[in-house]
Amino acid sequence: MTESTSTSLSASTSTSDDTEEDNEPNFQFSEYPPDFFDLVIVDECHRGGARNESTWRGILEYFSPAVQLGLTATPRRDDNVDTYNYFGEPVYEYSLAQGIEDGYLTPFKVHQIQTNLDEYVYSDEDIIEAGTIERDRLYTEADFNRIIEMRPREAYRVKTFMEAINPNEKTLVFCATQQHALMVRDLINQMKASPDPNYCVRVTADDGTLGEQNLRTFQDNEKTIPTILTTSQKLSTGVNARNVRNIVLLRPINSMIEFKQIIGRGTRIFQDKDYFTIYDFVRAHEKFNDPEWDGPPQEPPTGITPQQHRTPSEPDQLPTSDEPRQRPEKIIIDLPDGKKRSIQHLTRTTYWSPEGKPISATEFVQRLYGELPNLFQDEAQLRQLWSRPDTRATLLEGLAEKGYGEDQLAAVQKIADAENSDVFDVLTFLAYDKPPISRRERVMAHKSLIFSRYTGKQQEFLDFVLDQYIREGVGELNQEKLPQLLELKYRSINDAIATLGDVQQIRDVFINFQEWLYLEQNQAS
Question: What is the pTM of this model?
Answer without folding.
Answer: 0.64
